[in-house]
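I hope you will forgive my troubling you with a question about protein structure. Here, with my thanks, is the record as I have it:
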Amino acid sequence: MGDVFIMSSNSKSEWSFTVEKVKSIEARAVRSPGLSITKLMERASMAVFKEIERKFGGASELTIFCGTGNNAGDGYLVAAIAAANSVRVSVMEVGDVQKQSVEVAHARSIAAKSAVKFFTPETELEIKEGVIIDALIGTGLRSQMSANFVEAIKTINESKMPVVAIDLPSGLDGNTGDVPDFAVQADLTVTFVALKRGMMTGKASAYCGEIVLASLEIPDSLRNIETSDSKLLRLKYLLGHLPERSKLAHKYHFGHAMVVGGEFGFGGAAIMAAQACMRTGAGLVSLCSRIEHIGSMLARQPEVMAHGVASGQELEPLLDAATVLIIGSGLGKSAWSEQLLQKSLRAGHPMVVDADALNLIADGCMKINFSELSWVITPHSGEAARLLGTSVQLVEKDRFSAIKALQEKYSATVILKGPGTLVVGDAAAGPRICPYGNASMATAGSGDVLAGIVGSLLAQGMPLQLSAELGCCIHSKAADLAVERFGQFGLTATDILSCVRAILNSRLTDSVERLASPEVKEVG
């Protein structure tokens, strides 16, 4: 998801909030002694200007698009600061300036006293160089945007110039990560007070660019008035929960992970899941699949105990040996597939359930008491839509609502895959967001590797939610490392698999600091 930085284990950049809660923090802050809306605008604009200098080495020219809300106030003050530093500044004003608040109008007056040129959509503005600043809407998105704001966003995106968004790319829903209409595609977003949860998942990854959090020096006592809505996962912290390996340990101390799947034509999926179990440290790994795939499994990974099963009856006695089941990878939707799933669900083991196992469950052809299961489900948005009886579009419109609905309906720890993968186990604690990963993960077999990683952690005795959280981070950061080593295009799931051990073992070296850096840079 991009270059990332870490500040501290209790960093403000670990927590994210709804837009409404951030505004509540701001409202209390401006009522406290020594703070005001104007003071926060001054701090915000200075933070933006400093980040422009850091990111782009300064700029000879700024073109700032201002709307009518407080976001515009920040933009006007950035204009004034830039002009005072001998930067050429043009301000495109979109919307009725008569509707600006007293504080925004004051900020505009400061910019007007500087060497700043003002334009309106009716006047022609040619953008040839420098950096564009988006101060149109920020978190003020309400409903469908008016035509002049849409045209301004299109102008920004078509300029091919570097773009900095103030607080939030205009047009992006800060609560969900959805883009209802059009949104600014920023290279850098400087957000204020606290992270907005929608910045870290779904479509937001294509719009925010690098994210910098400027706390605006608001005291923690004011920030802590609101409970967070979600939290970013931290690989370094989670790696510390891996079971220690005693010098007296043997393979039975680290569980027996059994992969069930691999219908005709899909044997590779189950094989990759089994390999991922082995690479992540399970003591014993078995594969139960079509007999035609057994030779391939043994050739690929001879440490895996491979069994050919022709029916659920043949699978049943093998299940007793397992401590954890991973079912769904390449399972298919045949009668054979249904038999294997039914027997697995009745075995009473902790489970990771993925792919066609989820599709079979969504079909409703089996009577299942979900509350009796101890399981992690790992749907992508298509599988989530089928499980919820809705559309992919509605799942992606609000991934936070979708994962909550999945957790409640299926009494499961849920991994909702996609950009900014979400994890929910304890509904009261709220969703966790994985800040690692990249577009190369959109390849066949990537989800099978994830299922195997999570299953292996479960087999080693880690709880459901912790296994899901750490498994997502290992998987996504392994993909980041694979891109570093091999490049993004043509990356395969087995390339990701080849980097899993490096991530696991990074906790033993200083390299974990580089491998485990989070998505958000935090400044004062």
